[in-house]
Write a structure and sequence with these properties.
Layout lengths: L4 H4 L12 H8 L20 E9 L16 H13 L6 E2 L8 E11 L16 H12 L5 E9 L11 E10 L13 E3 L5 H11 L1 E4 L14 E12 L8 H16 L37 E9 L6 H13 L5 H10 L14 E7 L4
Enzyme class: isomerase
Catalytic activity: uridine(38/39/40) in tRNA = pseudouridine(38/39/40) in tRNA
Organism: Carya illinoinensis
Length: about 375
């Protein structure tokens, strides 16, 4: 039987301890998308438990992740939910800052909680279980509709969400095609009406991946001490657009394939029909069948740019995507990409991609 988050409040009370403001100040001095490696501040009191919290959110209605007076932010909403849970203000530090309109499949933050007995003020109780924290905070987030805690882990007092991060992965979604963008995709991807040449974009990635001076992909206002970064991965893939529902042609094709598989269950793999190896890659492709019925929307081609590195400069990913998109439409060549990288000036780059297609995908740690 699970605990009701409302009942959890009966067993917690306000703590006189607040986490050190040093951690929050250090985070605020770093620009968005910028993960400078600095010495981690001192941890909280030994009487306090530090939790590492993974969250997902749709960034459309947030004015970025960091706390801002009079604006709805990820940290602001999360701190309010924790306040309702434990009955006292908390200070939350995020691993990665995201702009207004940028989404997160998994951003990570840390928060310090001291659990004090409500019946016996001053008595410190054992820390809340990780699952209790996740359920209780999600209870207070449920009316927000665009943010959720997806994981919680107890960590040592000196474990810092930003400074201990070993790697960050970002995804960027582009939808290509002349059709108007679906209501379900609005503010979730960059709509490019032109066709994109994925092979050219992949060749451009080879120029940009690796250890470089990324001054041309560093927006004005970047506070990083050095423009040198190592981009461990930069790739472009075509995927099925989402939300995805199979067409009648695809459903019929899949049924035929399953019948072939059933009839061939006693045959070796080499005897199976070729179609069984390429489910979903039939004549309809990613764009839907050639002949659509009334009321059926033609799907866009969906491309995902993946960028992975220990740290990124301010707006680096969106500037990279802007150049890759220009290569895909034919407005830039591979030699132009080399020229832009060597120019070491952001004025040489193409217009920056909008925030709506950017997703913070994963933050990697060596967890204790």
């Amino acid at each position: 039987m699970t605990e009701n988050p409302k009942h959890l409040l009966d067993r917690v009370s306000e703590s006189p301890h607040r986490p050190s403001k040093i951690a929050k100040t250090a985070a605020q001095n770093l620009s968005n998308d910028e993960e400078e490696q600095q010495e981690a501040p001192m941890g909280p009191s030994p009487r306090t438990q530090r939790y590492l919290v993974a969250i997902e959110y749709i960034g459309t209605r947030f004015s970025g992740s960091q706390q801002q007076p009079n604006f709805r932010t990820v940290v602001g909403v999360l701190e309010e939910a924790f306040h309702k849970f434990i009955g006292q203000p908390v200070s939350i530090v995020c691993s990665s800052r995201t702009d207004a309109g940028v989404h997160a499949l998994s951003n990570v933050c840390h928060v310090d909680i001291q659990r004090i007995s409500k019946r016996k003020p001053g008595e410190v109780l054992p820390p809340h279980e990780q699952t209790v924290v996740r359920r209780a905070v999600n209870h207070f987030l449920q009316n927000e509709g665009d943010i959720m805690v997806i994981d919680v882990r107890c960590v040592p007092a000196d474990f810092h969400a930003r400074f201990k991060a070993q790697e960050r992965t970002y995804f960027y979604r582009l939808l290509s095609g002349p059709e108007p963008l679906s209501t379900f995709e609005r503010d979730r991807a960059w709509h490019v009406p032109e066709e994109l040449d994925i092979l050219a974009m992949q060749e451009a990635c080879k120029i940009l991946v690796g250890h470089h001076d990324f001054s041309s992909f560093r927006a004005a206002g970047c506070q990083a001490k050095s423009p040198i970064r190592t981009l461990d991965e930069l790739t472009v893939s075509e995927v099925v657009s989402t939300p995805y529902f199979p067409s009648i042609v695809e459903r019929r094709q899949n049924n035929l394939i399953m019948e072939d598989l059933h009839a061939s269950s006693n045959k070796s793999e080499s005897d199976l029909p070729v179609s069984s190896i390429s489910i979903g890659n039939g004549a309809s492709g990613f764009n839907g069948e050639a002949s659509l019925g009334f009321g059926i929307r033609r799907r866009h081609r969906c491309f995902v740019v993946t960028a992975r590195a220990r740290s990124f400069l301010y707006h680096q990913v969106r500037l990279l995507v802007g150049v890759l998109k220009a290569v895909g439409t034919g407005n830039l060549t591979i030699s132009d990409v080399e020229r832009i990288l060597n120019a070491k000036s952001v004025t040489a780059a193409s217009p920056m991609a909008p925030p709506c297609g950017l997703y913070l995908g994963h933050v990697k740690y060596d967890l204790p």
